[in-house]
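A further point concerns the way the authors explain their paired sequence and structure data. Showing the layout once, in full, would remove most of the difficulty. For illustration, here is how one protein appears when written out as sequence plus structure tokens:
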Amino acid sequence: MPPRGRLHQGHCTRTGADSYLELLVPHRIDVLKSSARLGRQLLPEYPGVEYEELAVEIAMVQLSQTLARLVKGNIHVMSNPTLDSTTRIVENARRIASLCQRLDPDFDMKRLCVKVVATWEGLQACHELSGLGIQTLATTLFTMEQAVLAAEAGCAYIAPFVHELKAFFDDSYNDGGPNLELCVDAQRYYKQHGYNTKVLAAGLLNIEEAKKLAGVSHMTIAIDLLYTLSKTDERTEDAKAMSLFMNAPQNEQAVERVSFIENERKYAEAFEKSYGGKGKWKTKQVGLQPFSLKAKQHTADISEQAIDIFSEYQMKALGLMRENDPGKPRRRS
């Protein structure tokens, strides 16, 4: 089971899975109930969204703003991972921004960053949101092609996954080892070509991986690993010797600048071939229909890939809000 909240360099990041699991904790019952109540109350103000989806968004914002008081940096709130339309993703992110301001008028909106899955549609949405002044983070990112497109889209951050997401939900699963080099390659590329996008390494399983990524712009690290790392007594020289960033060749030849933002076909072809197709397999949505709460229930088998795992928890969170809907008819005793 993943940790229910993560802190990184003064920032707070939260996924739908984190939020769902935290809403099940007894001391968060007030957040669950208030989110359900506000979902019904505010629904007329947000046409085009179903009660359950709005209530889940309210819950994620409330939980994030609770932690925002404990850190100085941004809060990273995840958008709905089941959406596969650029327009719907933009609407979702704008609604999250609106709720942030509605639920806490004193909240500094410059601290909000919306996490968006790194599909073509998601990254095109990030491009639009950047123009609207809403910060974004490209998540479920496993390839340089996604990293390049995210920078062109104006993402404030990318979150390259060091391990496949399944590794955090199944202790017996072996994903073949960490992909640490992606973090190094992406950060080098951004520096060489003048992009402001920052690398936020995600999906670390142990402190050795954290040490090897010393020098990355940001790092998401589970609280138990952070605690272990704080107790580690290591000489500065030894720590530097482990870092992939500090031991990278100084005079490496610049990587050619690539552009995908205006050419979906070019991007798709490059993405298909990336890492022998493994990058797409780890990222891709499989078996999910366009999102509609009024349409059929989510009955497709949930794949073991990143977006689908997040989508599974999104569906669980929606179900939780349906169970706690204050507007549903009550059974007579």
Confidence is low (pLDDT under 50) at residues 1-9, 285-304. The chain is about 45% helix and 10% strand. The radius of gyration is 20 Å.
